[in-house]
Amino acid sequence: MRFILRAKTKTLKGQINLPASKSISNRVLIIQALAQTPFKIENLSRADDTVIMAKALERNDIITDVGPAGTAMRFLTAFYASRPGEKVITGSDRMKQRPISILVDALRELGANITYLEKEGYPPLHIEGRRLKGGIVKVAGNVSSQFITALMLIAPTLPRPLKIEIQGDPLSRPYILMTKSLMEECGAQVSFEKNSVIVQSGRYRSKSYTIEYDWSAASFWMSFAALSRNAKLLLKGLKEDSIQGDSATIEVFKNFGVISQFTEKGLLIEREKIIETKSEWNFRNHPDLVQPAAVTAAGLKIPFLLKGLDNLRLKESDRISALEKELAKAGIKSMATSNSLMIDGNELQSECEIFDAHSDHRMVMSIAALSMCYPEIVIRDPMVVAKSYPSFWTELEKFVDVRPGR
């Protein structure tokens, strides 16, 4: 399937409905499942990843297929390992290429019985759940913060405190802090000092929780604003005191002429003339902002170095390689290393080829902003956006004509 995008206007004015945060939703779902008394969750994400997580926890099937949902794979592995019962957890072909040995090794140290069913170190997994013991585990911090979060979430249910010693500077530190904040709000005792996380044994307190709106999704609209002729958009529901690290998108997109102001209804973003821009940004703590930032720099013809991309090759796609390939279709020159991407800032060519999704929701939503730079663009496999933002195309149709194509 393909979508053909044609901008109705390059002047963007109006209100945008954002999805609820799937990162917060998936964490709260695990906390709810571990709490002794169920509690109400308001504004739960409708993203595919969260739907998959919720169904897995509700159905309690022996075989769970999480498809492409990385958070579900990591969080459910730890959850199943810590609860009595036999489970098999599998996923999409891409999921079977994403390593999980760091998490499995840590769980085994705590007493888990987990077996690889195909390739060593990768899903699918056979899990014989049991009561784990707690103690001290060492976890590499340079692959995924979700491994650390998965261990943190089950820790209050263990009979002994859990100490996670993180080897090296952890990637996506704000996501670990998000987990800590959510756990503490539900009664857990958590400390995170230097590179150690300590969680005391105890129990979760049942408490109604309202999920925040998603800051990662806001970054795509900031990209549209930056590439537009003029913009004044209200991103509904965003609040200044967010626990989401991707609220840093405000600072990132200042480089591209997007100014932000909080109101009672959300975040008002406007486009202004770029006066001064940084020539580089370290995305180590904000990997989900890489794609919209790279596309924006390319569309504005601004030389820009994106650093700290250590684990981007292990996401839904190899996001560094995918960005190189897709930007090249618009004539944009870039140069990649293992953990960086340099956008040259050259002129866009007058026409571009069909863009590919690479089975990656963030790639599609990022590339869609180039509809502000071309009379028409075409994107293959556009519905992968449902992984995090099911209503994206409905919102985009306020400014862009979106129609199916062959």
Q: Nutshell version of this structure?
A:
The chain has 406 residues and is of the alpha/beta class. It is 30% helix and 23% strand.
Structure, described:
By secondary structure, this protein is of the alpha/beta class. It is built from 12 helices and 21 strands. It folds into 2 domains: about 1-20 and about 215-405, Enolpyruvate transferase domain (UDP-n-acetylglucosamine1-carboxyvinyl-transferase, Chain); about 20-200, Enolpyruvate transferase domain (UDP-n-acetylglucosamine1-carboxyvinyl-transferase, Chain, Alpha-beta prism). The chain has helices spanning about 20-35, 50-60, 70-80, 100-110, 145-155, 175-185, 215-225, 250-255, 290-300, 320-330, 360-365, 390-395; strands at about 1-5, 10-15, 40, 65, 85-90, 115, 125-130, 135-140, 160-165, 190-195, 195-200, 210, 230-235, 260, 265-270, 280, 305, 335, 340-345, 375-380, 400-405. A 4-stranded mixed β-sheet has the order 2-13-15-14. The protein has a 4-stranded mixed β-sheet with strand order 4-5-7-6, covered by helices on one side. The chain has a 4-stranded mixed β-sheet with strand order 8-9-11-10, covered by helices on one side. A hairpin with a 4-residue loop joins strand 18 and strand 19 (about 340-345). The chain is globular, with a radius of gyration of 21 Å.
